[in-house]
Structure formats: C-alpha cells, structure tokens
Amino acid sequence: MSLAHGRPYLAIPGPSVIPDRVLRAMHRGSPNIYEGPLIDMVAGLFPDLRAVAGTTGHVAIYIGNGHAGWEAANANLFSKGEKALVLAVGQFGLSWANAARAMGIEAEVLDFGKSSPADMGRVEAALRADTRHEIKAVLTTHVDTASTIKTDIPALRAAIDAAGHPALLAVDCIASLGCDEFRMDDWGVDVMVGACQKGLMTPPGLAFIWFSESARLRCGQSDLASPYWAWGPRAEPEEFYQIWDGTAPTSHLYGLREALDMIREEGLPQVWKRHHALASAVWAAFDAWSTGNPAIGMNVADPTHRGWSVTAARFGAPHATRLREWCESKAGVTLGIGLGMAPSTEPAYHGFLRVAHMGHVNAHMTLGALAVMEAGMSALDIPHGPGALAAAAQVVAAATRHTGP
Fold this sequence. Notes:
Structural class: alpha/beta
C-alpha cells in the first residue's frame, strides 16, 4: 500500500520547493522586452540581490544553472594558463576545479576529504610557498552541496592575508545563499557565485556573479571572457538587452522578484535563523537515531562545520537507498542521493543520502519529513534509536519559545 498520493515534498538540495507566490508571479504572458514595466522591475532586482549577498559591489545575471555560474566566474577571473588554488571539501570543490581545467586554467587542489573542514594552516602554507604570486585566485565552496561541509570564509580571508598573498577570493554560495549567514563585503570576498534554485526559491535557470571593484579592475582583460560570459556589460549595461546578452528570461525574473520580496518581508537575519533552527532539528533526530545504530550518522561531526541548508548522512549500504525509495514511493517525500560519497557503481553508494531544509521550508515540512523517515526505518526494519521526533520537536519548541511571531 502507498500513502504517497497528495502533494509531494521535495527534500533534495535543489531545486527546492517553489512557493505558490513565485509560481503565480511566473504564470503570465511574455511582456514587452524593449520598454515598459519589465525594465523598471529588473532595475529593482539589483539592490535586493546586493542585499542578500551582503555587498555594495557589482552584480551580473546569467541564464543558466550553478555550473554556468562557475564558468562565468572562471571566464572573468582568469586568462588561459593562469592559476587557481581550489579548496575541496567534497564533490563540488573538485568539480569547480575540473571546470576551470577544462577552460585552460591551471587548478591546484587542496583536497580535505569528504567529511573534514578546510585546514587554514595548509591554505596559508600553500600561499606562502607561491613566492612568485602565480595563484590569481582562491576558489572555495561556502557549503559543499554534496558533503554539506561549511567553510569558514572569514578564517580563509585571514589565512590569505596572513600569507601576504594578493590572490582574489572567490566563493561558491550556490547551496548557502539565502540559507546560511553570508556577508560578502564584511568577509573580504571578491567574487561570489550563486544560483536561483535553492535558497532563492525560483525554478532553475538563473546564475549570479557578484564581484568587487578590485576584482573588476584586476580581471578586465581576461582572454576567456567571451561576449556572452563577460561580466562588464551585464553589470553596467548601456542597453537592457546587454544584461542578458540577448532576450531576457522574463518568467524567471518575475519569479525572482517575488522570491526576493518574500525574503525581504521575513527579514534576512530571520531567514538565517529559521534555517539554522530547522537544520538543528534534523541534527537532533539523527543524533537520536544513531544511538540505536552506529551505522547511522551525519557526515560532518562538528555542528559548526555543517551547512544550514542540507544535511548529508550515512545509513550503511544498502539502507540509504532503500529508505529513499520507500519515502518517495510510499509517503511522497523525496530525499537527496548521497552525491560524491562513493561511486554509483559500488555497493557503498547505497549507504548515503541527504536531507535538504532550504528555501521555502517550515517546521511542519521538516518535522514531517523526519517522521516519514522514521516510519520508513520501521517499515524496512532498519535499526534506529528512539526519541528522534521528540528531540526534533524540542529543538523547534526552543527556537520559537518567547521569541514573538
């Protein structure tokens, strides 16, 4: 018997749940793309995009996904043959390095594994060793979507400064934007990469680059910045079409406008607090489940190094895959695969999954997903400790107690 009929819940780390308000905003005919209300509406997006990133710098918007954002950053930061230092704490750091190499950029990778945060001592040592200052930029994920490890960006900026190195700092915030606290200017970030399909609650299709004036001045002559990828005309267009190098993605822009309105109405600090509280509820459930089965556990041991938008976990093969399949087919909840934790051709692959809690998500959605997971573990005879749902509920209660609306 299946109990999945009804509205499904997508608890994967992007695309995230799309709010009804965003869907309604997008459901309209194509507007005039040469003059009128669309042009005025788009002009208002840029201040709000700066606000959500914590910057007064430049913003460029691309029609594409997060990988397009990487390519835009790479194309503007580097010329062929120039060098990047890439910090990898999971699949997406490695993937960004591979994307850079495919464009002719030399990428030196500091690989910290799949469960440990970046060691800033190693970063500083690598930069000190670069006495000729061949490294043009340091690339890192803020939250790696696969491992869910969060990198301490202020500490990374301090390591670069301590080494006395002029490298620019570029950060992939695709999985963290609008979920985890991020302050581009305060933290000394030169280039920031984002996308619309996670914390910004809009269907996949838009990528963003925020860049400092220092980055603009140092990167204006890249031989990789083709007319499409060059960030200058997009950030400082003479004509509206130059923002997109062609036709505007009109429906996505109306959806993004509504999503940014929702973030502003809630207040960005409150958005961050909500994500931290819901993440903490998920962590409390896993702590309880693991007491009955040591094979169950979160990928990141220290909570200070966990992202607030998604939690990577292990269940022991083949139980993660069995649980994911049960949750979707029997209860209408889709969990994320354990991306990058083991090759998909190996049995170990079936021992990992991810639970997303990003974007348009609230307490009943998160607690409901946890209850479905526990029901699945019981139905599949997967050993687990008691008290997970009560522990998660207590986290929610504590987060909302005496705090007002």
